[in-house]
Amino acid sequence: MRSMIKILAIDEATVIKLFWLFKIGFIHPANETGNLKAEIFALEKLNTLDKKNEDLKISLAKKLTDQAFGIVTAKARILISDVLEENPYQIDALYLAGLTAFQNSRNDIAKKVWSTVFEINPETKYKNSINENLLKMK
Known about the structure:
Blueprint: H1 2-23, H2 36-49, H3 54-67, H4 74-86, H5 91-103, H6 107-120, H7 127-137
Helix pairs in contact: 1-2, 2-3, 3-4, 4-5, 5-6, 6-7
C-alpha cells in the first residue's frame, strides 16, 4: 500500500509539472510519446487542472478516438460537445462531430457538419478523410 501512495504522489507531481510546461508553451498536448495509454492518462489529468482548455479537450478526444481504432467514444463526444459550445467553428471538433454522425449512420448531419469544415478551411488537414467518408455514403 505504501508503494502505491508513493507512485500516486510521483504521478501527481509529474502531472503538475506537465501542466506548467504546457501553460508556458514548452510542450504541446498533441505530442506523441508512442504510449497511447500514458498520453490519455496525462491529458485527462491536465484536463482536470485546466477544464477550459480547448486544445487539451481536442487532444484528449483525438487520443480516445485513436485508442478505439477510429471510433469516436462517448467520452470523446462529451469533450467535442464542450468545445463546440464555446467555439462552434473549431475545425478539429467539427471534424470529429461529423465523424460521430457518420459512424452513427447520420449521413445528413455528417455532410452538413463537414461542409462547414470546408467552408471554414477548404484545405483542412481532414480533407482526404472527409472525402473518403463522403464517397462511402454513396
